[in-house]
Amino acid sequence: MAQLTIEELNFMLGAMGYLPPRNEEEHLFFEQMHEGYVPKTKDRHVDIEAIVCGRCEMRKPIDEDEMHFVAEELPPIYADSMYSMAARNFSNLPKSVIEKIKKQHKRKKNNDE
Q: 65, exposed or middle or buried, with CB in 10 Å at 0-12, 13-18, 19+?
């Protein structure tokens, strides 16, 4: 792959919107690349005065009380692997799961020998 010169890199970054366009050519290229683009923030309003005056408050999108794990609700394909990453959170696991992990490790060691 050919290496870009600094001038080509600056043109590319300006045309893609990472840098402001330096001339009309970069501006036109940017307009052509983003023709028909509709931003996700269209028809939304940010109340700057509320932010500055401290009337704006941060809210979590999901209440932590609503988030819970119920094994019965899982599809059957996940039943065996629901604790597949459990070793990283070993101290937070139920004793039954810890015992199951230990049994699996013992079984693997016996099969290797």
A: exposed
Domain count, the chain: 2
Are 14 and 26 spatial neighbours (Cβ–Cβ below 8 Å)? yes
Q: Provide the residue type at 14 as one letter.
A: G
103: domain range? 79-113
Q: Confirm whether 73 is domain-assigned.
A: no
**Distances, alpha carbon 11 to alpha carbons 32, 37, 104, in Å:** 14, 21, 57
Under 8 Å between Cβ of 17 and 34: yes
Does some domain include residue 50? Answer: no
Q: Which residues contact 24 (CB under 8 A, 6 or more apart)?
A: none
Q: Does pTM surpass 0.70? A: no
Summarised one tens digit per residue, pLDDT across range 32-63 is 888 888 887 777 788 888 888 888 776 666 66
Q: Is residue 83 part of a domain?
A: yes
The residue whose two tokens read 């809210």 is 59
88 is a domain residue: yes
- Which tokens go with 90? 């070993």
